[in-house]
Design goal:
This protein has 198 residues and is mainly α. It has one domain. Helix 3 packs parallel to helix 5 and helix 6 runs antiparallel to helix 9. The longest helix is centred in the C-terminal third of the chain and has 33 residues.
Length: 198
């Protein structure tokens, strides 16, 4: 994959503070223009379209991300990015619909492993306030596969004011892990598609 894409990804990986659960504006307008200008050997390939959808979403450009995700609604990765976009705009039922459409996406295994390990090694559940969000987060440490619908429910509870600052930070870190895993998967798929099209 070309160097400019890798530079975009590195910039997004290092953004601090982490991406909000419900971003209100594009994080970096200049970066959004760079993402839009990415040139791919096969611009109609679902893998490349998914990569642009993901990068725009990571930059809080929800509308642009949505326009790309809509082009590949029948693609599991496109469906997953579509679901994330709706979750970030607080359309939780629509988000869960798209997660269902994405099915048992291959990224859910590596994502589950990484999220569970982070929670078990970095979070003291006794220090988190009791309630549904903490219970849902604890469930992540025991479930066999990442459940984006259940994670969406946790974020919805936080959005309704049923969480606290500490829980928000945990949810944002898990969202960051989710984005890292999905962008890595999407990038590998786009690189493979580019190799095949040459």
């Amino acid at each position: 994959m070309n160097e400019s894409i890798m530079q975009i990804i590195e910039r997004l990986k290092s953004r601090r503070p982490l991406q909000q659960l419900a971003p209100e504006r594009i994080w970096d307008e200049a970066l959004d223009a760079e993402i839009a200008a990415i040139s791919l050997a096969n611009p109609d390939a679902p893998e490349g379209i998914a990569l642009k959808a993901g990068l725009h979403l990571w930059n809080d450009s929800l509308d642009r991300s949505h326009s790309y995700a809509q082009l590949i609604e029948d693609n599991p990765t496109g469906g997953y990015w579509h679901g994330l976009m709706h979750r970030m705009e607080r359309d939780y039922s629509n988000a869960k619909y798209w997660f269902y459409q994405a099915g048992a996406h291959p990224v859910m295994d590596s994502l589950q492993k990484r999220a569970s390990e982070w929670l078990l090694h970095e979070i003291d559940f006794k220090q988190l306030p009791e309630g549904e969000i903490r219970d849902m987060l604890y469930e992540v440490t025991k479930q066999p596969r990442w459940n984006p619908a259940a994670f969406t429910d946790s974020i919805a509870l936080q959005g309704r004011g049923l969480g606290c600052e500490a829980l928000r930070q945990v949810l944002e870190e898990l969202q960051h892990i989710e984005l890292l895993e999905l962008i890595a998967y999407t990038l590998r798929a786009a690189e493979e598609s580019e190799r095949v099209s040459r």
